[in-house]
Design goal:
Elements lengths: L15 H14 L7 E2 L3 E21 L7 H5 L9 E24 L11 E3 L5 E4 L29 H4 L4 H24 L9 H23 L1 E13 L5 E10 L3 E3 L7 E9 L22 E14 L2 E18 L9 E7 L6 E8 L2
Antiparallel strand pairs: 1-4, 2-3, 2-6, 4-5, 5-12, 7-8, 7-9, 9-10, 10-11, 12-13
Length: about 350
Amino acid sequence: MEKTPSFRMNVKHHTKKLLAVALTTLFASSGALAQNEVKGTTYYLPQTAIQFSVLVERTATQPGDLCMYSERFLKKSDVAMKPTTQYRILDITARATGVRDTSKMYTANINSKHSIVTLKVNEDGIIEAVNTTTAERPKPKRFVPAPKQQPLNPRDYMNQDILTAASKAKTAELVAQEIYDIRESRNQLNKGQADFMPKDGEQLRLMLNNLNTQETVLLQLFEGITERDTVEHIITYIPTKEVNKDVLFRFSQKLGLVDKDDLAGAPFYISIADLHSMPTNAAVSDEKRSKDDANIYVTMPGKISFTLHRSEQELMTQELYAGQFGKTAPLDNEFFGRKLFTTLVYDPVTGSVEDIKTEPMK
């Protein structure tokens, strides 16, 4: 997840004629920019958040209508006698993302004194680029659960004797006998001893699949039905300082993911360490600001590490750059003055300079 902000300056020498053509084209195209690419003056820098994806599987078992007769007729003693639901965590992943930092709102000076044509901001007002466009960044892939299959109805696989049985015990006896008959038929097919053997391998496969389905559906009357589904939970954590084992979320095998204050769940902790490492940027100005500055600010993010714990067990440790652990400063005013035309692309996670190019204005 580590990403060091880069700075690249590319100065090209053009004649006044070529520059005039380029600027004319740029101004003409600005009216057809995307909706979030506006000539507004206000923008935000991002703060870096850690987004956790927690995949939780739920297993729910509903006992069968004939569960109390399982031992008597099928010699099964381990079937569920009451509904049960259990949860387990399948996977946890983490990624860095940028969210709007309301404490870092700035106003760019778009006027005749500055070579700022457009600002591109996203739907949250976070600045993405100055005087240029950026390609659509891929969105994180979200978990898509598999479609559920509708359970089969056991009554569709019962013969007339089972359907008209006078008592539940008689129904259980007849269903159990049907299961044993299905198993016997399957064994005879596998041994090639059935009275009506299929003509080829495909027919044999279809017949065996049909017998397996009948047995599975009828067994559900004794063993019950177990359903499994998986849900993705997204947890966003914004680190602001060093912490040692701050509760991120809680998890219960009976309830699943619960609120961080719900003591019914076991805690999962996050620890944040400031590594006190910050890259330099030669484009940043240390001069005193004036009212005529362009007010184009960038971030020099600080490096941190986070650790996810469960009790004393470390589940993951990663390093990343976070804007709020670094320094925010304006770019040198010369970049957007009357002598240079500058295009700037931001890192949307940290607010640092991802790419910068300049052309002389003569």
